[in-house]
Amino acid sequence: MGTSSLTLIPYRMKAFTVELLENDTWKRYSEHIINRTEESNSVFSDLSYEFSLSCNDLDLIQDVRVYINDTYEQSLYNNGKIRFPSKGNGERRIFLDCYGFVEIGLALILSNGTERFLTA
Questions:
Q1: For 64-109, how does the pLDDT look when each residue is reduced to its tens digit (9 = 90+)?
Q2: Cβ atoms within 10 Å of 38's Cβ, excluding its own
């Protein structure tokens, strides 16, 4: 799939992009994730977010499952855009239960039926 990245777009704040690493076994590489970035990106629990996925084979992706710190977050995928539907109480705050370190995992479901796992 080549180089992949994920742009996090917080409501009314500046978007930022993080690199996605392929993770075939879905194991955590926390030390590598923490040490590989020169920027200090932060997410906020009181903001709603949407994501924008960027990779070479975007047209092969049929759906995406999003995991925040290994917890599945319901999402809607459409041509690289990942949105989080409301649970009935306003906007979705996907980082509401997060404190300190956040790991984002994506399971990409491809058109041929296979899955690819990426983490940020």
A1: 999 999 999 999 999 999 999 876 665 678 888 887 778 899 999 9
A2: 5
Which residues neighbour 9 within 8 Å (Cβ) at sequence distance 6 or greater?
15, 49, 50, 51, 52
Q: Give the Å distances, CA to CA, from 52 to 29, 30, 49, 105.
A: 23, 23, 10, 14
Contact between 91 and 46 under an 8 Å Cβ cutoff? The reply is: no
* Residue 103 near residue 91, CB atoms below 8 Å: no
E strand or H helix that includes residue 107: strand 104-110
6-18 pLDDT per residue, tens: 999 998 889 999 9
Question: What is the H or E stretch that residue 23 is in?
Answer: none
Of residues 1 and 3, which shows the higher confidence score? Answer: 3
Whole-number Å distance between alpha carbons of 85 and 93: 10
Q: Is 88 helix (H, G, I), strand (E, B) or coil?
A: coil
Q: Hey, what are 7's tokens?
A: 């742009």
Closest CA to 70 of 101, 111, 44, 113: 101
